[in-house]
Amino acid sequence: MSSSVEAITVLSSDGDEFKITVSAAKLSKPLNWMLEDVCFSDDCDEVPTIEVNSKTLVKVIEYCEKHAPRANSGASDSDAEELKKWDIEFMKMDVKDILFHILMAANYLHMEGLYDLACQTAADLMKGMTVSQIRKIFHIKNDFSSEEQEQLRRQHPGCSFD
Amino acid sequence: MATGCENPRLPPEIVTDILKRLRVKCLIRFQSVCKDWRNLLNSPSFIKEHHHHSIHNNCLLICHIFHRTDGFWPPCLLRCEKETVEVERLPVMDSLRPVTELVGSSNGLVCVKLGYEFDYHPRSHLLLNPATREVRQVPKSTNDHGIFCAVDSGFWYSHVVRDYKIVTIHRARNPNGDDLPCVDLVEVFSLRTGSWKEVEFGIIRFIDFNSESVTVNGAMFWFGRHFGDLRGVIVSFDLTTEVFTLISIPFSTSIYEFGVYENKVAMCLPYNLHEYELWVLEEGSCASGGKSWVWTQKYRTTEISPLFLQLPLLRNELVCYSAMGDSGFLFNTTATSTLKKFASSLSDSYILGNFFYVESLVSMCDTYIE
């Protein structure tokens, strides 16, 4: 196969096929390695699997395709500004149920930009949450005794622990 | 892995990367989530990571503002957003008896002075972390019995000796009420030992201190003048060796502003009626192996009107001044040496002391290593 390939096909962990352009795949080191494998190996029939579920992979690819032109060629300030606005809109969608999956995927795919964006989005969401809401989304059990909780309160008078 | 829409369990390193983006107020609250989180949020490695993230993303200014109608405000924060400057009150500062001087800010810890010099009542230093609300009274020096008055001071963390230090420069009081014009005592407080000690100051005895301290690379700097002549001079105090050095200034400093630019000591001076130039002090090496200092001109600008007198230089690209008390402005200087104007809610006020401030979880109990 020649290096003039414009897009490659990958499989999600659910077994669905997705197309990702070569320039978009360059945003992720692991994806880029897979791309090189596909482009340069003789065994072209093999479709690489990415350990990310379909719903998340759709979003990750959407992000890559949007950011690829800027990452590959550099961009003006107005483009950067536009991209920032796009990121905010992008993170508004289905954030509650998909955000942590995107975080895991960005971490696994070494995508720094998406990882930072998702971490910041999670942090921003947490600001407005109660401690019990935090426990719920992070699957955490409260392992403090009531005495220990009282001790925390005493250490930080004037702070709310709800 | 969990199916469908359920949130997956995040590995600890991702949890850390999210938490380090939160403000201290939230982190104190989230200590009660579980023991693992409490231990993480109190661990030196997390405190350090959180601090580093904040330095690059949430650098604020802590400042002392004199408002024309309200008088002094307790020290508060200036948050510089893209095109505006927001003032943020600090509850812990509001609850203190009048703070009369901001001494310095380092790693999220702030040193302030309480009380007034003219009271003849010794003023006291207080160390505090405004974010965690930890407060510690600094013990009084044994020399502190009304004979001396402080003319200048500074507070910073020394990476080399891993200690926070307060430096105070004193003059003896003249019984007639006027302060004698020379330095009579310099004391350094170490948080690690919890005590004050005197240091050698002969070289600065006849210097008149004219600025707040700025700290760059482990040394404190002041702008001063030799008594009896108008020559400006930079006084530096190495926080590790506790030795003073004088650095000469090769240009006229009849009107000047003194601050930090790109992590270097900087001075902004009028070049002529319409132009200002910015000079930075850079460290060179000399043949004898010791330090030498070189002044370099960074840029000249025509956009500052000489009508604006107060012009403290701030963070890398930020120049702030209040124009004759009429209104407050912040300017963002860029590499192209143009100045961007910022809107500000600081009208009718003068900014007196100002320091970079980064919210942190750093505690005075364990001496923090940056």
List the helices and strands and how they pair.
The complex is a heterodimer of chains A (162) and B (370).
Chain A lengths: L6 E5 L5 E5 H4 L3 H12 L13 H20 L3 H16 L2 H14 L3 H16 L3 H7 L8 H10 L7
Antiparallel strand pairs in A: 1-2
Chain B lengths: L11 H8 L4 H7 L4 H7 L2 H14 L2 E8 L3 E2 L3 E5 L3 E5 L2 H4 L4 E8 L2 E6 L9 E6 L4 E4 L10 E11 L4 E11 L5 E12 L4 E4 L8 E3 L4 E3 L2 E8 L5 E7 L5 E5 L8 E5 L2 E7 L5 E10 L5 E11 L16 E6 L3 E7 L5 E6 L4 E9 L13
Parallel strand pairs in B: 4-24
Antiparallel strand pairs in B: 1-2, 1-3, 1-25, 3-4, 5-6, 6-7, 7-8, 9-10, 10-11, 11-12, 13-15, 14-15, 15-16, 16-17, 18-19, 19-20, 20-21, 22-23, 23-24
Pfam families (chain A): Skp1, Skp1_POZ
Pathway (chain A): Protein modification; protein ubiquitination
Family (chain A): Belongs to the SKP1 family.
Please give a structural write-up.
Chain A: Belongs to the SKP1 family. Chain A: Residues 113-157 form the SKP1 component dimerisation domain. Chain A: InterPro entries: SKP1 (IPR016897), SKP1-like (IPR001232), SKP1-like_dim_sf (IPR036296), SKP1/BTB/POZ_sf (IPR011333), Skp1_comp_dimer (IPR016072), Skp1_comp_POZ (IPR016073). Chain A: This is SKP1-like protein. The complex is a heterodimer of chains A (162) and B (370). With 162 residues, chain A is mostly helical. Chain A has one domain (7-143): Potassium Channel Kv1.1, Chain A (2-Layer Sandwich), CATH 3.30.710.10. Chain A has helices at residues 22-25, 29-40, 54-73, 77-92, 95-108, 112-127, 131-137, 146-155; strands at residues 7-11, 17-21. Chain A has a two-stranded antiparallel sheet. The longest helix of chain A is centred in the middle third of the chain and has 20 residues, at 54-73. The radius of gyration of chain A is 21 Å and the shape is elongated. The mean pLDDT of chain A is 84. With 370 residues, chain B is mainly beta. Chain B has one domain (43-357): 6 Propeller (Neuraminidase). In chain B, the strands form 5 sheets. In chain B, strands 1, 2, 3, 4, 22, 23, 24 and 25 form an 8-stranded mixed sheet that branches. In chain B, strands 13, 14, 15, 16 and 17 form a 5-stranded antiparallel sheet that branches. A 4-stranded antiparallel sheet of chain B has the order 5-6-7-8, with no helix packed on it. In chain B, strand 23 and strand 24 (339-344) form a beta hairpin. The longest helix of chain B is centred in the first third of the chain and has 14 residues, at 44-57. Classes of the chains: A mainly alpha (162), B mainly beta (370).
